[in-house]
Structure formats: C-alpha cells, structure tokens
Amino acid sequence: MIFGCLIAQVRKLTISEIKEAIEHNRIVCYYQPIFDSKTLSIVKYEALVRLIKKDQTVVGPYFFLEQIFSTTLYTELTNVVIENVFNKIEQTGAKISINLNFSDILDSKIYDSVIKSIKKHKTYASLLAIELLEYEELENIDIIKKRIDEIRSYGVLIALDDFGSGYANYEIFKHLPIDIIKIDGSLIKDLPNSEISLKIVKSIILLAKELDIKMVAEFVHSKEVLSKARFLGIEYLQGFYLSPPQENI
Predict the structure, then answer these.
(1) Residue 29: pLDDT over 80
(2) In whole numbers, what is the pLDDT of the chain averaged over residues?
C-alpha cells in the first residue's frame, strides 16, 4: 500500500507508536485534488494517509509504513484508510482513490478486508478508485485478475499508478482490466525539457487512447508542465502547482 509523501522531518516511528496511533484514531487522510485538463476544475481526489503523533505532529507514510509491512497492523491500517475514505465519500459525494500494491491484492487478509469494506459501502463503491502500483514483476496474474474483476464488479475503478517507471510495462494490459493510467511524475515533470520524456509520454497517450483508458498526469509542478500536459490531451492533472494535499475536501 503506497500513500503519498511526508509532511514533517522526524524520526521513523516504532511499531508500538504506530499501534497506539491506530488504536486512538490518529490515522487520517489528506486529499490531493485531481483536475479536469480542459476546465481546470476539481473532478476527484487521491487519499494520502497521515499519522498524527501524540504531540499533534502530522507525518507521512515514510515514517511508519515500512515498519508494519507483513504484520497485522498493516491490514488494520489499510482497513482504517478505506473506511475513512468511504466515510468522506458518503459525506461529500466526491470521487476518491486509494493506493494499493499488487502484493496487497494477492494478500488474502488485505484483499478480504478491502472487499468487506466495498460490500459494506456498495452504494458508494462507484465513487471509489484503487490505484495499483507494481514494485516487482507480477506473479500469480490469474489470481490478481480474478480479484480485480470482483472489485470492479461493484463499480470500483482500477488505475495503474506511476506508469512509465519501474516494472510498469505494456504487457499488463493483455491480462488486467485497467480504467485509468497515471503517468509517472518523473516523465511528466521533464516534459518541457526532455525530448525522450516527451516521446515516451506520447507513446503512453497513444496506447491509452487505443485502449480507451483515461490518463492522469502526475507531478504537475509548474506552469510549463501544465501547459504541455494540456496540449498533449491528457485528460486529468495532479500536482503541487495546482494544489497540494489538503486536510479537508
């Protein structure tokens, strides 16, 4: 599960501190807007997990997520995030995405927790999107497809996050139903200055249009990047130039 970036420069938290934060409801989400490229109006949000320390310092996942991988706390945290997001969807009617790894989909405990929350809030499931990020070569693709198909059957959209970096590759579209591509920020931020980045992004855009998949440009951090992404016809935009993550919608 991948949740945004840090807010404060502090030491990494201990497992007991993380456990206490979960038990005392000090896990929250910040929301970064995603904008329509044509109108520059907000159309949806990405939920980014934050932990509030005892002293009220707000920290990002860099300081607490790695420590709880492969523990029951990780599953608990995932469930808290999903419940928080569904509560926000019900309160506001906003479309919101959460972040998971493909390994989370393969983890039966995490997957069962996700499906349980989706079923519980199925009236609002069509307003949820799941952004999937692959950190390693995909295994057990048949299981992943079956589980993603079940998630999508409730109306949840599936986005492929950071596409164009790491292990992301075109073959994935042969096997999995993808609704949205989020083009990696390392490519988007270099659009005004890198011919290679521009050509790679153009190839991703061509693929997405051929497959009828919507696109989001991440890391829109300047006026120049904004103009280039809009000129290329990328449907949605996200980045600090437009808006940082915010506590409330």
Answers:
(1) yes
(2) 93
